[in-house]
Design goal:
The complex is a heterodimer of chains A (295) and B (269). Chain A is an all-alpha fold and 295 residues long. Chain A has 13 helices and two strands. Chain B is globular. By secondary structure, chain B is mainly alpha-helical. The chains are: A mainly alpha (295), B mainly alpha (269). Chains A and B meet through helix 1, helix 3, helix 4, helix 5 and helix 8 of A and helix 1, helix 3, helix 4, helix 5 and helix 6 of B.
Chain lengths: 295, 269
Amino acid sequence: MGADMAKGRVWAPDSRRGLALVSAPMAYALLMLAAPLFTIFLLSFWTQDFLEIDRSFHLGNYREALTDPIYRTLMLRSLRVAALVTLATVLLAFPLAYFVSFHVAAERKSIWLFLITIPFWTSYLIRVFLWRVILAFDGPVNGSLMALGVIEAPLGWMLYNVNAVVITLAHAYAPFAILPIFVALERIDRSLLEAARDLGENQVMTFLRVTLPLAAPGVLAAALIVFIPTIGDYVTPRLVGGSQGLMIANMIHAQIFDLNNRPMGATLAVLAMSIVGAVALAAIFLTRRWTGRKS
Amino acid sequence: MKGGRFLRSYAIVYLAFLYAPIVLLPLFAFNAGSVISFPLQGFTTEWFVALTQTPALHIATLNSVIIACTTAILSTSLGMCAARAGTRYVFPGKSGILGFVMLPLVLPEIIVAIALLVILLQLGLSLSLWTVVLGHVLICTPFAIAILNGAFAGLDKSLEEAAIDLGETRLSTFRRVTWPLVTPGVIASLLICFTISLDEFIIAFFLSGNDPTLPVYLWSQLRFPGRLPVVFALGTLLVGLSLALLITAETMRRRGLRRSGRQDSGGFL
């Protein structure tokens, strides 16, 4: 009883101190994130005529954004590219994460992770631009394929289209996919795998019925971490996408800077964010149900 | 084991894929030909010399360094508050508040950039280096928190309690006990935030107005084919700098883990 009261007295100033400490970063995020997001939400219901902004409430921007074929094409293309990049990145990343977690000696794991993350920290613009060089008509890929006699003429389909965007983004986001999967694999209790083998499952079935379901949360995290930023990527479509590879972020930029239509830019941003949010929630919900049923 | 050997070759091919662009970069930076294509034309350092003769580049570099230093200090300070609060105290709404502060990590950068741009323009503020700092602090703080959480979580609470029992004040305890133990984490956080800010393009592109940062300057140069070798020379220097910063940050992080006597769980993120 006395101990409980003492504990109660200790907690109260503690939680006050915690709140006081966290108030600075929270205030910053409220001012610099919540307030701006709320502003673009408001702005998306307004209209702009040259420099004058009409502040009466309209749904016209949304109607236009959803019906005009150009916005719809760009939005659907962004979704498709983000989905393809997510699929490619996660599928390619899984074996690597699995290798580092299960086949690399414990003391060498962190050096492998460091090696994997280094390219991510080097200039994003230059990395993307270098893919333009690599995939170019006279670039090293075409050059070596021709030297090896695999192809007769340079392949033209590699650059300035959606393929190039997918390859470049899959490269840019690789570490984002590897790390969460690795963390999930590391958490798997190795004795569960031994138990499955002892009970007569072969290696493949052990992987499918024990490892994969246990790694599912990490795979989901990886998919979301790749999907969310790629849908709004601006640099890659501009540098390697050509006119057929442009995405929604390029249109948002054009609306604000070139067409002087901030409300339309805001509307497209709000729509892109809503789609991302909806996909993320659906993915989390589905994975919870799937892994929930398994256990 | 056969599966192991297959996976190892896969891992090596994958690393080759990851490093392909970075390996090409210095090749073209030292290549005597002014066209970016194979075969290479011979060795030259003229593109690096050209870098020293470009005043616009020097201004952009100075801008970027000012922004990156300010961002690193502000984000790390905010990150320390959040990491300390998150690892040491229990308070109402904790996971919600911390989750909200980490949100910029998962938002598409273009959304953060246009939201900030629109509110600044609506408020009638002019764009400058400081508006870029505002955006960069927002996106760097989650990284600072992630790194500093590791540093603060490793602290043994009883060390601080002992200091207080021995008559130190809260402030002097922090200065004499807590601070020395978390310093490696703080340095790692400063370096990572500096690196992120130095390399960040989209937010700087939207918010920098007439003061280009290094990536914004690079972007403007990519349009001119004749400037590409110089851009690649600059890129080579930047990659070298990032590497040096990262290796220092990683060494610091590991030293911090050793100091608090914990196992290395690997990686920054």
